[in-house]
Amino acid sequence: MMGTMKDGRPRSLTAIITMVVLALLWTVPTIGLLVTSFRSREDVAASGWWDALLNPFDTTWTLANYEGAIANTSLGSSLLNSVVVAVPATVLPIMFAAFAAYAFTFMKFPGKELLFIAIVAVMVVPIQVAFQPMLDLLGPRGLGINGQFVAVWLLHTGFGMPLAIFTLRNYMATLPNSVIESAKIDGASHFQTFWRLAAPMSMPAIAAFATLQFLWVWNDLLIAKLFLGGGANTTIIVDLQQMLGTQGLGAELLTAGAFLSMVIPMIVFFSLQRFLVRGMTSGAVKG
Amino acid sequence: MRPTLLAVFITVLILVLKVFDIIYVMTNGRDNSDVIANLFFRKLFVEQQAGQASAIVVVLLLMVVPILIFQVRSYKAQEANR
Q1: Do A117 and B24 count as a contact with CB atoms less than 8 A apart?
Q2: d(C-alpha A42, C-alpha B52), whole Å
Q3: pLDDT tens-digit profile of A39-77?
Q4: Domains held by chain B: number
Q5: Which class is A69-285 in CATH?
Q6: What residues of chain B lie within 8 A of the CB of A121, using their CB?
Q7: Shortest CB distance from B68 goes to which of A124, A222, A225?
Q8: Tens-place pLDDT, residues B11-39
Q9: What band does A287 get if pLDDT is binned at 50, 70 and 90?
Q10: B53 touches chain A (CB under 8 A)
Q11: With b meaning 16 or more CB within 10 Å and e meaning fewer, what string describes B31-64?
Q12: CB A88 within 8 A of CB A217
């Protein structure tokens, strides 16, 4: 087992053990959630989830929570709402940010430095500063789109963009300038250079940021609660949070629902992760 | 290593400064666990005090200003070395 890594350094037993222990520690709440979601309400009230793990044959495992969560709650439609919120809220900021990052890296225009410094500055401004004015602006006194998906798309796009522009621009700055220049000499317009060269070559950075942005948007509670509310357009995170408060619905359904809400982000993460690794290795070959 | 550590540190710091969901769901500010975002939400919706809510966020904005200045400075230093 003890050998050397690809780069010739010796493997460290301490590092391996530390990593495994940390990974297990980080997974403990998720395991607890998974175990609890298969136990009945009475069992959960009577003993901790670890009891079920320690005596797996004495416990009555049940699928009733999942059946209840699917049949008796609005989780199905709110899961769909979450997808409707998260996909445009990931694609829009990345698309605009990629355009902007290209302009900041490869084009010359007046005020470029000042604009980029402004972007670096607003990157650290928390989103809360925009809520009160935006609620007014999007609410019935302003545009009247509060409670519709487009309001949430706007907010996530606006506040996702600074970090997206910054990350993508930093990545594009490492692309070989000669490739872009030779495209220019061959008569390619900026439009062609962007779609044929800059965007495909930036795929690792785009995939990495898309993963992060999707997870942030999916797990967001505050924006969804403020701008979509608890009505027909509610996302799954808000729906779960409301289940926590209502006594009649049953806390046992919450665990099953929470686990169901993790499925889609996991699919996104694992599919994009594979893509991300491939992008990185192909980037390494270029030298 | 240092620029990467700083970038991650600042990003996580900002994420934690505006934390809302955990506090709102777990304690809703009981037992001295209130944070700015939760207080803001309560003022704005439960107490319907839009002005006070805005004032709370201005405090948050003031807390962020030093980080903002630092961020711009380190960006400028980085660009000078490029």
Answers
A1: no
A2: 44
A3: 887 777 778 888 888 877 777 788 888 888 887 778 888
A4: 1
A5: mainly alpha
A6: 68, 71-72
A7: A124
A8: 788 888 888 888 888 887 778 888 888 88
A9: very low
A10: yes
A11: eeeebbbbbbbbbbeeeeebeebbebbeebeeeb
A12: no
Is the distance from CB of A164 to CB of A97 less than 8 angstroms?
Answer: yes
* Minimal Cβ distance to A121: which of B11, B54, B68: B68
Kindly indicate the confidence band of residue A269, based on its pLDDT and cuts at 50, 70 and 90.
confident
pLDDT at A252: 75
Q: Is it the case that residue B66 has pLDDT exceeding 90? A: no
A117 to chain B, any CB pair closer than 8 A? The answer is yes
The full set of domain ranges for chain A reads: 13-62, 69-285
Domain range for residue B63? 2-81
Residues A38, A194: Cα–Cα separation, whole Å: 50
The size of chain A, in residues, is 287
Compute the distance between CA of residue B57 and CA of residue B36 in angstroms, rounded to an integer.
Answer: 7
Residues of chain A positioned with their CB less than 8 A from the CB of B67: 124
The tally of CA atoms less than 13 A away on the side-chain side of residue A157 is: 17
Q: What is the per-residue DSSP string for chain B?
A: -HHHHHHHHHHHHHHHHT--HHHHHHTTTTTTT--HHHHHHIIIIIS--HHHHHHHHHHHHHHHHHHHHHHHHHHHHHHHH-
**Mean pLDDT for chain A overall:** 83
**A222 close contact with B: CB closer than 8 A:** yes
**Does the interface predicted TM-score (ipTM) exceed 0.85?**
no
